[in-house]
Specification:
Blueprint: E1 2-6, E2 10-11, H1 19-27, E3 30-32, E4 37-39, E5 42-46, E6 57-63, E7 68-72, H2 82-93, H3 100-114, E8 130-140, E9 145-151, E10 156-158, E11 161-163, H4 170-182, E12 199-204, E13 212-221, E14 235-242, H5 243-247, H6 258-280
Parallel strand pairs: 8-13
Antiparallel strand pairs: 1-7, 2-6, 3-6, 4-5, 5-6, 8-9, 8-11, 9-10, 9-14, 12-13
Helix pairs in contact: 2-3
Length: 281
């Protein structure tokens, strides 16, 4: 069956540096429209969501042949490409577990990927019942504090994060959500200077329409005095908290795995400090 799709302008919900998504849209025949300025070689338009909406910076695209395009088998969502699935599997397989629980969760996610099941959320909040998400935790090394948001729906102090979209790298999700949720540019933390996740968890959510989140965790570089604009519609509050205190929080106050993630990140911090002391000595 052939579906006629009329396209005048497309706003893409990913950060300009998401090379996987950019390559996909170009392969499908779209071109990047002129914008207000350039980010990583992409023309970007400011405040594209319209009056009264949270400011966002996104590329706009149009099909090369004009205002309409015909694409066989087009659906509202792109299917998971085998290349994307393999790239995700490589990310997860490359994780070195900090404990037996992370080893079990890593193996669970790898087995899930290998089944060929849908990986991305299609309909909020629970379709499919298991889907891929990210957490990113801003960390200020000078104050040893982490940035958490008081999530209105979860009613907990959590790291910022979001759902991975089809054809989107997990790091691309981090870049997009950091912009949308915090008005900040995502940068890997120097203690983990890579766009790969540091930690993986599999968690059954609480509350109405419970589902399973397969979560990839990333530490971010962000100073506590750096200006940010968190999304007050999604968060009831936010702030910087001492890392040592957060590790000791009860599970009902935050994500039950946050303390374990901070413990793993703390090992990186200690290793870096020991290396610096060795060089200095």
């Amino acid at each position: 069956m052939t579906t006629l799709l009329i396209i005048r302008r497309l706003w893409l919900t990913y950060a300009p540096g998401n090379t996987t998504a950019i390559a996909t849209w170009r392969r499908l025949g779209f071109r990047n429209l002129p914008g207000d300025y350039t980010v990583d070689g992409m023309q970007v338009i400011t405040d594209c969501k319209g009056p009264g909406q949270k400011p966002s910076r996104l590329p706009a695209w149009r099909f090369r042949t004009g205002s309409s395009a015909r694409h066989p088998g087009w659906s509202r969502h792109m299917t998971t490409a085998s290349g994307d699935r393999q790239a995700l599997r490589d990310l997860v397989a490359g994780l070195i577990p900090v404990d037996e629980r992370e080893a079990a969760d890593r193996d669970d996610v790898l087995a899930w990927i290998d089944t060929g099941a849908e990986l991305y959320r299609r309909v909020p909040p629970d379709v499919p019942g298991k889907h891929l998400v990210t957490y990113f935790l801003p960390y200020d090394e000078h104050t040893d504090r982490v940035f958490l948001v008081n999530h209105r729906k979860a009613r907990r102090l959590l790291p910022p994060g979001g759902h991975v979209e089809p054809a989107e790298r997990p790091w691309g999700t981090v870049m997009r959500e950091a912009d949308e949720e915090l008005g900040a540019v995502a940068r890997p933390h120097p203690l983990w200077p890579t766009e790969r996740p540091l930690f993986v968890t599999v968690t059954q959510t609480v509350g109405h329409r419970s589902h399973t989140d397969a979560t990839l965790w990333f530490p971010l570089l962000l100073a506590s005095d750096q200006p940010i604009t968190p999304d007050s519609g999604e968060f009831a509050g936010w702030g910087w908290y001492p890392r040592a205190e957060v590790i000791a929080w009860p599970a009902e106050r935050t994500d039950p795995h946050l303390g374990r993630f901070l413990g793993k990140f703390g090992r990186l911090r200690n290793t870096a400090a020991e290396g610096a002391a060795h060089v200095g000595g």
